[in-house]
Amino acid sequence: MATVRPSRKVPGVRIYDIGGRPGEAPTVHHKVLTAANAITLVRLAGLPLFVWLVLGADRRMAAFIVLVLIAATDWVDGYVARRFDQVTRLGQIMDPLVDRALLAVVGVTLGVAGIMPWWLFAVGVSRDVLLAVGALALFGGMPDIPVTRLGKTATAALLVGFPGLLLGATEWGQQFPVTPAAYALSIAGLVGYWATGAQYALAAWRLRRGRDASSMRY
What we know:
Layout: E1 2-3, E2 28-29, H1 35-56, H2 60-83, H3 89-112, H4 118-139, H5 149-168, H6 178-208
Antiparallel strand pairs: 1-2
């Protein structure tokens, strides 16, 4: 069974919705077992391996490669879902949650290893905590608010910046100005992350007042 959304024009450059039909919103299914959802679960399952490589085996380059592969699946599962008509309600819920889990686990792991300063991690996770507390207080759970393009861009910046800090801590990365670039990208991502938090707060306010928040695509 599928819930069909009405077709509409989706403006902007096609870097966010690659794989879908131009100008059309995807059909959202209520399936569970899809290739796209399986890729999302693989991303989640790769996190324990990453933690062990950093903290247990002290194999930072191997951990960096694993982290890059995990981060890359964030794009792959979305492409597969749109390209093969596998956009599901479960996937829409899981994908941002897995992204949050990924950033949290990577932040804690790199913090424990002394690679990332704790303040950098705290700036990111505090936004998620505030949004979660606000959502529970206002709605008793997470409201149905679409991920904005700024949110996708900020998350992508963090998914490059955080691994960059790890790469900068390897023997290879120390030969190049990797760490300063990774810090710059991470900080830019965090700025966008908090700006996205303001967008979600506005969307929650719209929902609270009975207005439709699904039009937020910026």
